[in-house]
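User: As part of a screening pipeline, I want to sanity-check one entry by hand. Below is the sequence and the SMILES for fe (ii) ion. Please return the complex as structure tokens so I can compare it with the automated output.
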Amino acid sequence: MAEAYSLQQYIEDLRQIVADTDDENEIFERLAPLAGKLVAEPSWLQSKHYESDSEQGFGVHLLHEESDHSLTILVVNWLPGRGTPPHDHGTWAVVAGIEGVEHNQRYARVDDGSRDDYAELELKKSFDASPGEVICIRTGGIHKVSNETDGLTLSLHTYGRHVNYTNRSQFDLASNERKAFKVSVE
Ligand SMILES: [Fe+2]
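Assistant: Here is the complex for your manual check:
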């Protein structure tokens, strides 16, 4: 039997892809199938990756980060009924489902962008992502993730830069407030 695709091999492939190109379409084209392969046989997954954070509604576990905070790989789990506010990432993102169905909503910013603390969003698309499915979000893309199931959901997130080291935002749909978005990472 062939050996499972390892986390170390994924990290090496990721480094090679970004060394070859900074075109996000090309990064997605090459990286998405590899992220799908990595979650297909998750021998690297550990029981601690199921530990969540009831305060923020999700648990974030670091698998890899380059020393300059670029190329970051996280396992993120969502508690039932919980999720994120709409947010961007300040970098590109590739998300591959591991367990459970995660509900995604994609938004577009429709104001003129003239104010740092204000943003009007318009819902563009809602969809469910199942285990094995891979979602690619360009720099500046805005989405909201929620777990509408009865169990914990888990996904693998790969970013061009650690999201606590980018200038990224969360958005309040009711007040149109835009503010910084940092997450607690284990
Ligand atoms: Fe996100």
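Points to compare against the pipeline: The first strand starts at residue 58 and ends at 65. The CA atoms of residues 52 and 165 lie 22 Å apart.
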